[in-house]
Amino acid sequence: MVDRCFYNTTLSQTFSPCGNYLVAGNIYGQIAVFDLQNALEPSEPTSDQFSKPLFVFQSARDKSVSSLVSNSKFLIVGTVGEVSGYDWKSILSNKNPKVAWSLQIPTYRDSLEKSDVNSLAIVENSNDQTLVAGCGDKKVHLFNLRQGKHTQSFDGHDNYVHSVYASGSQVVSSGEDGKVCMWDWRQCAKTAVLEPHLNDQLARPHLGKWVGDACFNDDWLVCGGGPYLSLWHLRSMDLMNKFSNVEDSGIHVVRICDDRIMAGGTSPYFYHLSFSGEIFTQLETSSLTVYSAIFEEKPFHVTCLAGSSSHIDLCTNFKYRDQILTFEEPKS
Amino acid sequence: MSKNTSSSSASTASSDAKKRRKEEASGASLLQSSSSSKSTADNNIYKTVIEYEETEALRRNPDEDLELVKKTCEEFRTLMGEIAEIKAKDKDPAAIAEKRTQAMLLFVILKKLNRLEKFRMKNSRDLLHKVKQQVDSQHLHLQNLLYEVLHLKKEVTKCLQFKSKDEEIDLVSVEEFYKEAPESISRPDQTKADSHQLKLARLEWELKQRKQLAAQCQELQAEKETVAAEIQKKKTHLESLAPMLKDILSATKPVQEYLGFTGSSRVVKQPEIAYLLPNPLYFLYVQASSYQEASDNKNMAVTISGDEEEAQRMRRTAVSSKQQYDHHEDSDSDNQEEKEGGKRHHRKKSKTDRQEERKKHLLVKHPLSVVVSITLNSGSSLQLAFFYLINLNIITVKVKVVLVEVDHSISASHLISGETILSELFPNDFGLESPNVANHYQLKQVGLNSYDSKEYGLAYFWAQKICGFDFASAQNDSKVEPTSAVSQENLPGILRAIKKRLAARITLYKQIQSLENRMIPEHPELSSMFAPKTHGSIDFWQTIVHADFITLPYTAHLLTAANVSESDSFFKTVISRGSSAKLHAAVVLKCDFPSSTPIFALQIETQGKQLNAKNDESIRDMEREVNHYCKEYCSTTNLRERILTAQMLQLLSCFDIYLEAAMTSQFPREKIFIQPVRGKTRSLPYKYMKIGNGIFTQH
């Protein structure tokens, strides 16, 4: 059927705290819960080619689910104009989970539309948890999860924020304006700005200047989008490597995992690269564009790739795609 | 540190000494090269000395040697002291020479001891090395053994986990087994003690019992079959009675009329020719005309056409030869020959003639047919002529479409042609295959795979149903007889469906006609829902064939999802804006339009690039707008058939948005939108909202 499921785009994914479930959200505001155990180690052979979700529920207000993160207690859903929390217990025991809490993204008088929550990240410190949200209003908003309060906003992008990534006291945000900003949320200050599209080696004017995603570890920062995927030295902010062997027309996901870089976007493949630019593996994906890639080690060693198709690809090693989930609603 | 350096210096000293010795030796050999025998003797002496010293080194006690070294050193020191003293005092050279000689001797002893020590060291090193090697090999051996143990343990667990097939078989409980099984199988003396034997015995008993039950089952089935056959025989007998009764009824009619009897009103109303109809067509006629009467439907008419005399003759022969018809193939054709015997003079025919004869006979039609015509309010109508193929025992339909106010000159005329307009009125019903399973074999016997649908009409499933045949629930082995109840149950729904199909097809046809003239069909209500001004213009709209459609590079992703088959209709259109941007669209229309909506596959060609749903996310979004979101605009019933118009309007507006939002350099922005791209997907504002002059947003 050429229906809305056929044109599904999955924007976000996260694992449950126990790691046994995968939760994914799409542009229609649906959130699907998948049983990984069942998908990876089916107890009985099924006739279905693709594993279907345990159940699918509608997010509040039916807006697209652009981002998902989870902590030990809540599934945190970023839609349009608000972030809401669902108790994990209610999700795993009930097919119609109720919203436990919600936080509004602060709006300003001159804005016509509510801003999208394009990306979420959680930073843990001592006993507080801070939620970092990259939003459509060109800002990065920080919330204290314990108090449920908006604590601060980072203002520095000239267009909407595509993604945020946080580690330690540092946050990196990448935006449609082509900027990659580093922030220190303890000091409430911007520490560095990168504009890859200004670098002649990296710019791809036909794709635009936007940066789809950025990620960093102790020494390195990786980012990509309209410009080529590139590696930067974190302290000196110098360009170290340009990954021109990646075939893509736009990078949307970048992650660093130990000594490898994972990258995906509008490309037939999802890439695993070394820092020096060698391609370890290129995985064929079901999606035209990969918008979300997450991985866990325990209890399953699995990478989940989702994007513009009704399918989610699972890889239990880094070599090939071995299971495919489908976003189709199970018939009750 | 100091010890190390001293030892190393000692070793270098010793190696130096060796070198020197060798040099001396070689020097000696050089000097005395003339007498080589002597030099070899020297070598031998050298070797023997070394050997001797080696044995001596092993024999001597190293501790004593150590003492000796110490003592010698002490003496050496005192001697040196004395020499120093003499030198300081009286400088007696003779005394010094005396002392020096003594010291030299002591030095020789020291040297000798040092050599011995070197040998010992080397010896003990070798010993250590040997022992080490031994330990290593034993360690390796140990590892091997451990590995073997592990392997064996694994094997053991594997064996323990082995599952045999017999565990899946449900067996009777042990108590029951002992109670029921004969002693020859249960063998209690062996099995009570040995559980393996018990299992074997139980399995044996299970097998025996199952075999018995299978045999019993077969027996019962055979019995059932004989009973069924008997029932069938009685049924056919009863059926042959029915026409005879009807004959009597019609024969007594003049008498009834003469006597002034009036039967039931319906019987009187029916023209006489209706009685000549075969059963299925008769049911259809009765049901359709009463449906028309009951609903007082002016747009529907039921008539009977055909050769009445032929029908009467047929009835007479049919009643007399009914039995023969049903039985044997040969008797059938004989019958046929007899009937046509008058015309043919030589009875001896070639084999192919006989085959042709059989074919003709098998496909013989009843001379009468029922014509149901359905007229729409617009005046267009559909004429359905129902035929009964006597020997195949199926109903076929010939469809004729009569249109008013519609121009026939477009290429998509197959949409309203009689042969295809009712295709897939119900899923998978193309009318090309006989719904009667038995026909398959009958046709094969005369060498036909299917019959000519042009000549004999189409055998739709629904046509069988409204004539009372129910092949779907019929059993395979018996001849299916029509029943009035089946006809009654299905007729209203099927007629409604046909009417709906006709109306939908005419609306669709008009839309396509307009598109072929490169115009978007006019519909004010729909136009108001889309952007009022668009810049794209239709270059052409044409019909293409299945093979062309599937080879287009941008349709691949839809082929399985849309379940594209050869029976669908395919179109291609090109929309252009300016000279530099073209939008290609391939369209699939399923037979069951509008319940399946048209599906568009898109490709934009600009600046030498071909962008489609396989390489550009925005085109995929555009396809989503056209193929999915458009349905929302046409959810009300009166708009459902106009979805093609809505999709074209949407397509034009999306095309403009794509060019104005993604290619700003070439196409100035005229539409009003807040954000050219939004969200992670960088989606374009395809959705039109009627606010002010109309603005575009993302979904």
From TrEMBL, chain A:
- Which SMART domains did the record assign? WD40
GO biological process terms, alphabetically, are: mRNA export from nucleus
Matches recorded under InterPro entries: THOC6, WD40/YVTN_repeat-like_dom_sf, WD40_repeat_dom_sf, WD40_rpt
What's a Pfam family this protein contains? WD40
Extent of the WD repeats: 154-184
| Gene3D superfamilies (alphabetical) | YVTN repeat-like/Quinoprotein amine dehydrogenase
- Which GO CC annotations does the UniProt entry carry? THO complex; transcription export complex
Keyword terms of this UniProt record: WD repeat
Q: State the PANTHER family in the record.
A: THO COMPLEX SUBUNIT 6 HOMOLOG
Indicate the family of this protein.
Belongs to the WD repeat THOC6 family.
Q: What is this protein called?
A: Uncharacterized protein
Species assigned in the record: Laodelphax striatellus
From TrEMBL, chain B:
Q: Say yes or no: keyword Protease present.
A: no
Q: Which UniProt keywords apply?
A: Coiled coil, Nucleus
Q: Where is the composition biased (Basic and acidic residues)?
A: 324-341
Entry similarity comment? Belongs to the THOC5 family.
* Major place of residence: nucleus
Task: Give the lineage.
Answer: Eukaryota, Metazoa, Ecdysozoa, Arthropoda, Hexapoda
Compositional bias (Basic residues): 342-351
Quote the cellular component terms of the Gene Ontology held in the record: THO complex part of transcription export complex
Q: What is this protein called?
A: THO complex subunit 5
Keyword set includes Nucleus: yes
Regions of biased composition (Low complexity) lie at 1-15, 26-39
Q: Give start-end ranges for the coiled-coil region(s).
A: 203-237
GO BP, sorted A to Z: mRNA export from nucleus
State a single Pfam family of this protein. FmiP_Thoc5
Q: Name one GO molecular function term.
A: mRNA binding
Q: Where is this region: Disordered?
A: 1-41, 305-359
| Compartments reported by the entry | Nucleus
